[in-house]
Write a structure and sequence with these properties.
CATH superfamily of the largest domain in chain A: ATP-grasp fold, B domain
Strand content of chain A: 25-35%
Helix content of chain A: 25-40%
Oligomer: homodimer
Number of domains of chain A: 3
Distance between the termini of chain A: 47 Å
Largest sheet of chain A: 9 strands, antiparallel
């Protein structure tokens, strides 16, 4: 595979905090970053060598961007297929279009996971009211309806509890392709951040245990409170998924765990660095961001062991203003994404504690 | 003192690797960096929000730069006094002009250190041949002659070994102010990187042991092979110097140690982050770069303990091309400064090993 040597230029589509932290990790290894993002004054622009402010359907801008970089990557999974195609004509795109295709559509994602031998919640696609009733017959009424495309942070989904919710579902999906997912009984949510390099080497980070509040990640803890068997099984599943996709880069696999049954169900995959991997910056031997750069540049992958017990907490909205508190705590690592407006619920930064209970 | 909050803009004079690593550390805390440097395409430009390419005597450019930032700092001690004055008229300059004044002139530096109660090599200023002979009478002939200003990496200095070297000295100094330093018998070179915040809090990192090759730093090891008493004494001396200067920021104090006598002599001070502190990026609880940003922004200083035994090696010239070797080593942290031309002897990057002998 083509190695992209330190000193080369990496193109990143998306200028949010993930792009920013990718650019910082790339700089440590001597790479220059060129950020492509429609929004002026994006967080990643502050640490980039070059920026392009243009829309993802601007073919001329995309072509010029792709020609200016030695490899292109992205920080979000909703990169349009056409955008990916334009960029791949001119440069290496890692991860490739296949990862986007699978992760952008909940039905393709579930079909792919099932075909890879990985367990998911029971699911059935529907568009019309008739098909929804058929799906309910198959899955049962304790289920969640989700649009197939462009859902995130709980948007575009509704839990069905009673017969009257069926109308609400049809109101949300409006005949757009959707799926009905059976409800999964689980004790905890975990995620595995896994890297696969262009040469096919794979390395998974230790499993993180996530707590979501209002559908937004609140905290990640490492190690997760799961058995050694579950820990090992989760890593094997993530590795299998990365290999089946011939994936290049870092990806996150979100899973539900039923402790009693020792059962793991894959919820979704994110073909990018992920909020649930932020703990790796100080908490692991290699950060997920450096690992992604190593993987897409076909450098050797770094070691993934945790440096101890790690706790990561997102700072939303005005939480970011408590910097004096966090910077006074000798066990805390405070991260501020450089965003100016601390709107309620906006991801403004995070804090990571490594071995917080040690003396 | 004035606190400069995360989200503000930091101005950095100098665009080399030190400015680059300062900018990376500042970004983690949410600051935007504006780099002022005469050379286009400087390493720090790749990770900066704004850059100004102008000379250090360009008053209009300096004034505009100073007005655009919330605090200004520098990565090199040869910032001209007039430059510092222009910048301080418009913004906070940290560290201040006093640190530059003392460190730019070897005679002022030695006088200041002596007045602070810190031991230095015996020294005597000279300009003419007569004064040189007088200095030799006082110091002895085993001595080093150095120009008072603008010496670095062994430039502008000559060791006197025989009578014939006296002519060579006069040839080098050409009547410019110089000093003669008595030769110091030492077993090892150490340095203390110390931070003092705008509020006057002081924190010293563990002592590093340095090996120079051809007057350029080759390696730093932590802990240094010195007694606990020497370790403590060295930190006290560095703290005393920082306090005496009412210093704000990170500074490095280079010292010579005579093991047998348990004696420490201060060689020189650098009013900036320093190559001998690069080990702190992965090897200490806080990096010297983040510590400098915390100090000049008047944030709480971070903890300074080492994470174990640490070895740092500079990568000069083509050493930087061995990235596959270093990235394959699970104990190595490879840093590439983004410079394109690996000229012999040029500082291109460094590698840090943390606890390299652990399993």
């Amino acid at each position: 595979m083509t190695q992209v040597k330190p000193g080369s230029t990496i193109g990143i589509m998306g200028g949010g905090q993930l792009g920013r932290m990718l650019a910082l990790a790339a700089a440590k290894l001597g790479y220059r970053c060129h950020i492509f993002c429609p929004e002026a004054n994006s967080p990643a622009f502050h640490v980039a060598h070059e920026v392009t402010v243009a829309n993802y359907d601007d073919e001329a801008a995309l072509t010029a961007f792709a020609r200016a970089v030695d490899v292109a990557t992205y920080e979000f999974e909703n990169v349009p297929a056409r955008t990916a195609e334009i960029v791949s004509r001119e440069t290496l795109l890692r991860p490739g279009a296949r990862a986007l295709e699978v992760s952008q559509d909940r039905l393709h994602e579930k079909d792919f996971l099932t075909a890879s031998g990985v367990k998911t919640a029971p699911y059935k696609a529907f568009e019309s009211e008739d098909e929804l009733h058929e799906a309910i017959k198959l899955i049962g009424r304790t289920a969640v309806a989700k649009t197939r495309r462009f859902g995130y942070d709980g948007k575009g989904q509704l839990m069905i509890k009673s017969r009257s919710d069926i109308d609400k579902v049809l109101d949300i999906t409006k005949g757009a392709p959707a799926i009905l997912e059976g409800f999964v009984n689980f004790d905890r949510e975990i995620s595995v951040v896994v890297a696969r390099s262009a040469s096919g080497d794979v390395a998974a980070f230790p499993v993180g245990e996530n707590v979501h509040t209002n559908h937004i990640l609140d905290t990640t803890d490492v190690p997760a409170r799961v058995s050694e068997v579950v820990e090992a099984k989760a890593k094997v599943m993530a590795t299998r998924i990365a290999n089946a996709l011939e994936y290049v880069g870092v990806m996150a696999v979100e899973m539900f765990v039923n402790d009693g049954a020792g059962e793991i169900v894959v919820n979704e995959i994110a073909p990018r660095v992920h909020n649930s991997g932020h703990w790796t910056i100080e908490g692991a031997e290699t950060s997920q961001f450096e690992q992604h750069i190593r993987a897409i540049c076909d450098l050797p992958l770094g070691p993934t062991a945790a440096r101890g017990r790690v706790h990561m907490k997102n700072l939303l909205g005005k939480d970011i203003l408590d910097f004096d508190k966090y910077l006074s705590d000798p066990k805390a690592h405070y991260h501020h994404y450089g965003k100016q407006d601390p709107r309620p619920g906006r991801k403004m930064g995070h804090v990571t504690w490594v071995n917080p209970d040690d003396e």
